[in-house]
Write a structure and sequence with these properties.
244 residues; mainly beta; two-stranded antiparallel ribbon; 13 strands
Amino acid sequence: MLKVNLIIIFCCAIFLSNAQNSTSSSAVKWQSKKWQRQDAGELIFSGGDLKQKGSTDAADNIVRFSMFFHFQNQFHYDFTKALGFYTGIGVRNVGFIHEWKYGEEDLKMKHRSYSLGMPVALKIGNFEKGVYGALGAEAELMFAYKRKLFYDGDQSKESEWFSDKVNLFNPSVFAEIRFKRGGYIRAKYYLMEFLTDKKDKFVLPGTSQEVEFTPGDNNLFSISVGSVLRARLKKKTPATRTDV
């Protein structure tokens, strides 16, 4: 079911990306061998299998939708009309949602963390038209973790800065398609497990019952659809005149 949902999301993302306004102010005239800054935002659909350590049963994965807060500063450099790369820095809200059958009720668990990332990607395409494909890797620092639990109509939440419940540093690889109007689609896979294998204890919301949970395999992946909000060439500092 998760794969079907992601395929539907992917098709919708293609449609939305191609529907960008043709009068967008983000477009600038392409120039080779010049740095260009692009500010971008995106919507993220993410998921991933989650098992309890020592068990072969996986929880039901629910696709997680996140629209806040995602922002990127990208710095592009093109060697030719068809080959270039970009790097930059970005902040994202990433995570997943799962449901477990616990007693007579479903226990829903939401795990998320804000991340600070730095990508490096190789681009190939037609830069004059603003169309290209990119393959890259990104180093991400998970700095603000939150967990929400939902059980029998009650809920609880917990937040930690630089928590040891998630892997603090998590590298990822991604593939991206950029469209003419500034829209893009990106598929990303994290190389390390999102949650650590630390034994966790929590109280079921609305009860006094304590539960022990030790995460097993839980790699995170996502599909995002985004758009360039603003693009501009990086200006050189004017030379100081020395003549009188």
